[in-house]
């Protein structure tokens, strides 16, 4: 995967070495030799990742990172700090300033590219969700003002470790802040992960009873856990295993002996990122749902119904099974709005849609076609069955009064329904047109009735001619 990477270091040879290594892997590299230039380039060019030296004059890497994360335009750019500092306190300071990871000089090539690839994969996915959220907001589907800042909501952590001492330590560190589940068995852990809504999996890479990398691989292969952050506990002797794990999809790690503060900060970072990612994904699915549903009734809208009907007719051609369509219209609905106002009219529309929902089958698709018109698409259904459903719905509308939500208005209403069935080599436009013609015939014949139009057009047209005479 190609990406633009900003390398920041006040020592020119360090910059040139990293630039050469990254260029060989076909990354587009830009460089800066101080913090001020780094901030300017990051704002103007919006790189995909920043490799940031810590020890720089005037403005150190910690301050640069804090400013990057405070700016909404650059806050989501991953930052890897490259430093000669190796103390846990320095890593904690960097993580608290917003850094995503650390590399210690001299930089190991395998570790460098493992971290770069891992963070770039994550950024690409998050960028896609953010773009969709922004597009949905611009279209008015969702409101960005409704979003809240991410906060840890008593997150759930599953610790998978068969070392009793390590497990006790995890329990002491996490117990006050998180809901923690401890599981030494890999098979049981998989069951728990797929059935529970966890925010983080903490996995020891040093196990005598299971293959931790196999477990990480399975977590990434299951749909339910594919996006679950994985934090690993690593011994110095397990570095090769760690690098393979980074390729599999491990998000972060803590080296043993474990520094409590570093573990706490890295845990918090992963959980906040997970909650932010969940919010983006929720907004995306919500925007998709709102894009295909009618805001007043919750039924599918006309655009979705048309696409769905086209797909259903294509399937019907292969299965040789008919598709029926009902089009219904509330009789004299204009009088409701003119006499009682649009609020009462909206109440009627909502109640009408509820009655449709209780009258049709689970496999049927109900939608608001526009105004006071509704459509029900019925797959694998012949005309007699569809006519029976339409008649039942007509009676439910006519026999039970409609009440406005304020309780001040009670109305007796009826509806007219046109029904037809698909024929061979027919598209959705033609099918809907024939159902619409049946609806208009029901209205011309006096309303509060069901008119069924058979697939044989000539039969229906002859019947219309007789009715007109």
From TrEMBL:
Chain positions found as 4-aspartylphosphate: 53
Keyword Chaperone appears in the UniProt entry: no
EC numbers: 2.7.7.65
GO BP annotations, alphabetical order: cell adhesion involved in single-species biofilm formation; negative regulation of bacterial-type flagellum-dependent cell motility; phosphorelay signal transduction system
Enzymatic class: transferase
Superkingdom of origin organism: Bacteria
Listed Pfam families: GGDEF, Response_reg
Catalytic activity: 2 GTP = 3',3'-c-di-GMP + 2 diphosphate
Domain Response regulatory as annotated: residue spans: 4-120, 156-271
An annotated Gene Ontology molecular function: diguanylate cyclase activity
Protein name from the UniProt record: diguanylate cyclase
Organism: Sneathiella chungangensis
């Amino acid at each position: 995967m190609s990406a633009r990477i900003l390398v920041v270091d006040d020592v020119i040879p360090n910059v040139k070495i990293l630039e050469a290594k990254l260029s060989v892997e076909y990354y587009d590299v830009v460089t800066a030799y101080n913090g001020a230039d780094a901030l300017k380039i990051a704002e103007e060019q919006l790189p995909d990742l920043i490799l940031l030296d810590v020890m720089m004059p005037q403005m150190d890497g910690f301050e640069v990172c804090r400013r990057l994360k405070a700016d909404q335009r650059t806050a989501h750019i991953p930052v890897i700090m490259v430093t000669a500092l190796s103390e846990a306190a320095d890593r904690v300071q960097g993580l608290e300033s917003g850094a995503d990871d650390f590399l210690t000089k001299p930089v190991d090539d395998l570790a460098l590219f493992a971290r770069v690839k891992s963070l770039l994969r994550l950024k690409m996915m998050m960028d896609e969700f953010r773009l969709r959220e922004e597009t949905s907001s611009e279209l008015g589907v969702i409101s960005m003002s409704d979003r809240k800042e991410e906060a840890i909501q008593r997150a759930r952590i599953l610790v998978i470790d068969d070392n009793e001492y390590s497990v006790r330590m995890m329990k002491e560190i996490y117990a006050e802040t998180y809901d923690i589940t401890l599981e030494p068995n890999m098979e049981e852990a998989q069951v728990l992960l797929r059935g529970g809504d966890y925010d983080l999996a903490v996995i020891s890479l040093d196990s005598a009873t299971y293959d931790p990398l196999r477990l990480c691989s399975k977590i990434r292969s299951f749909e339910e856990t594919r996006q679950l952050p994985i934090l690993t506990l690593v011994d110095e002797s397990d570095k090769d295993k760690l690098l393979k794990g980074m390729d599999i999809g491990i998000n972060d790690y803590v080296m043993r002996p474990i520094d409590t503060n570093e573990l706490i900060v890295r845990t918090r970072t992963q959980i906040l990122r997970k909650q932010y990612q969940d919010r983006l994904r929720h907004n995306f699915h919500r925007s998709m749902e709102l894009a295909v549903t009618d805001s007043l009734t919750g039924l599918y809208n006309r655009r979705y119904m048309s696409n769905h009907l086209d797909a259903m007719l294509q399937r019907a051609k292969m299965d040789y099974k008919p598709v029926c369509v009902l089009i219904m219209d509330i009789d004299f609905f204009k009088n409701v709005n003119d006499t009682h106002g649009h609020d009462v009219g909206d109440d009627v529309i909502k109640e009408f849609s509820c009655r449709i929902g209780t009258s049709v089958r689970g496999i049927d698709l109900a939608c608001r076609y526009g105004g006071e018109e509704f459509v029900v698409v019925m797959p694998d259904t012949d005309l007699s069955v569809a006519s029976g459903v339409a008649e039942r719905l007509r009676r439910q509308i006519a026999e039970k009064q409609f009440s406005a939500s304020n309780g001040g208005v009670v109305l007796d209403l009826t509806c007219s329904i046109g029904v037809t069935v698909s024929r061979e080599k027919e598209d959705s436009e033609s099918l809907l047109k024939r159902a619409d013609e049946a609806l208009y015939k029901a209205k011309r014949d006096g309303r509060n009735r069901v008119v069924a139009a058979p697939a044989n057009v000539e039969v229906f047209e002859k019947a219309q001619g007789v009715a007109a005479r």
